[in-house]
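Bug report

Summary: structure tokens for protein O-GlcNAc transferase differ between web form and batch submission.
Environment: batch mode, default settings.
Steps: 1) Submit the sequence below via batch. 2) Compare with the web form result.

Sequence submitted:
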Amino acid sequence: MARSVDEAFGRAVAALQAGRPGEAERAFRKTLELSPRHPAALNLYTVLLMRLGRWADAEPYARRAARETPGSDVTLYNFGLVLKQVGKPAEALEQLGRALAVNPGVADTRITRAGVLRDLGRLDEALAEIDAALALESARTDALVARGGMLGQLGRFSEALAAYEQAAAAKPDAPEPWLGCGKTLGELKRHDEALAAFDRALSLRPDLPEALQGRGTTLAALGRFAEALAAFDQALARTPDLAEAWVGIGDVFSEQRFYERAVAAYDGALARDPGLARAWLHRARALLALGRFAEAREAWGRAAVPAATVETWVVGADIASASRDFAGALAAFDAALAIDPDLELVPGARLQTRLQLCDWTNLDAEVARLLAAVRDGRRVAQPFNILVLSASPADQRRCAEIYANDMTATVAPPQRREPQWRDSQHRDRIRIAYASADLRDHPTAYLTAGLFEHHDRSRFEVIAIVWGERGGFDIARRIDAAVDRIVDIGRHGDAEAAALIAALDIDILVDLMGFTEGHRFPVLARRPAAIQVTYLGFPGTLGSDCIDYLVADPVVIPDAQRHHYAEHVIRLPYCYQVNDNRRAIAAQTPSRSDCGLPDDAFVFCCFNSSFKIQPAVFDVWMRLLAVVEGSVLWLLDDDPVARDNLQREAQARGVDADRLVFAPRCPLPAHLARHRLADLFVDTMPYNAHTTASDALWSGLPVVTCEGTAFAGRVCASLLRAVSLPELVAASLVEYEATALALAADRGRLAALRARLGETRETAPLFDTARFARHIEAAYREMWRRRRDGEPPAGFDVPA
């Protein structure tokens, strides 16, 4: 019997050593049939099955081997490795720990145990275990590569790069360190170096699909989309089921705004790996861009199940915000920052979301920290966040510069030709293009529709450049009918859109968005037009030399503040804000009881979005309610949590919550009509009412404002001066409160103001659309003349 066992085992070992796995397996099975507890056979048969990749088959033999030789660190290591591969990390960790207890000086055991800890998300412990392995064998390439990967997962990219570089130095002919270098350099936004690292990896192993995939990702980051797609195609040619390459293709399409094609590519990834969280997440982001919010939320949920990463939470916040679930957005932002407190842009978005919810807890301290970070040059907020949070035009410019510089860092230098300036006999009209995603059911469209209709077609050709969903709204149809041409760039990436605009030979490109939601600033950065202007949509500087002019007026940008604007400032007479004097007001006015208002109360009103309401102005409003007996404050019902918070804040100031009345959103004509029920509109600061103030004035409702220090805080003062009501512009909050209180106490004076507003509405400069068109056309002609005559851009005032 013993001889038979020895003979069978000998044949098994010989076959194993000779590389004849089938013969070895038969001999090991025979050995174990004759001697089921044979420790060496159990261990070596486990090794054979491991080499064949048959991990599930290996598990029972590894378990029996460990039971027979509990003092063998090799046997325990093999058992731990098998358990890791079959998805039993907790048990694997236990067995690898037993192996180390027997022999703590084996680097392989520590490296494998580190991998298990990493898979369990215990990255700090994993890193410590890798460091222990490197203390035993300092030049172990696999350990150094693993260390780089863990440091990368922890966001410690500079240290990760050092680990990969050390691995490359230890083994120059290994592609894995260069692969890690490429990925890490990409995270550090050193894309040219990342590309070189991936190329080095491919020179060592030309068929390495991960390097081709990384090369594609890097080329996409450099804006070289065609080359990126080719690299992903090469990766898929070698490994057709490489799901990550499909994700890369989807990301390229998303960058180019081909969102339907992106969704299809992400579906391709998920067909190959249904559990790939990154594919679900990026699919959610593409669906969000398509406005398919319910599908986006569902895809996001699938991404969040395996692991809620920083990126997962940020995308979740974006989806929640777009769905007007601001409480959900705040929770997602908080979760993201809990993982990475140094996230770019998120702190500013989070603070604005808190304002949207009227959550003012520790607001001053948080705003101070955010502004300090902006002043230090950190990319912690989008420019619109700072318009809302800071009254300082210097802070606003600094944030815009940081944001614009980062956004244009990978934009290639302009490739377009200079336009050929024509004599009047060749083209006798200046070609103006207005660019916006908001020429739809949006305040920008309602303000500008009349301007498009009043442009002098003998002097100007007017093009509307649009993108995004415009729906079937009457205002969109009206604008389409008013312009000479509609050009939709929604299905074009930034570079393609810029080339398309350049081919139109535009004389003056007027951006109506700035840095508001859905902007296409990277298109402007490519300089598709010789003269580029920012107007209306964003009340501040864009902080970039790709914009020549900013359209303003002497109130919103007085002489002393011109230096806070990167653009050359053009100041129109009266008011910079165009208004449409055809805006319809519903003929039927609802009753106060229909709107939840007391019949005999004095109604203070503010229909601004809730993010504009801040504690200092709310304090004033509550004091007004306390003094003016029976008065109420009528606000926009912007969010249920905001409503609850405002009522709570009112009670904290000694005012009954019922004295805050909330108005639901409704169609614009009905909304304008209900202004007739209010007595006085009270403005917000540091960000004023803009369109909401002109809505009130157009409806005949007087507005009281406090003139701020930055553009966004001076708009309402400009509007009031343009309807000859400068007495309603206060220089301080104290004066603002006194003015509102005096008007509430003198109904006769208030009635006279209302009558005056009604009498002058048709002739006031603010609502004289034709006159406004002549003034802005004069500005365009002067811009065009300077360019034609070879003069550089310069600011100027347009005479009345």
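Above is the batch result. After comparison, the two runs are identical; trailing whitespace caused the diff. Residues 414-425 have pLDDT under 50 and may be disordered. The longest strand covers residues 430-436.
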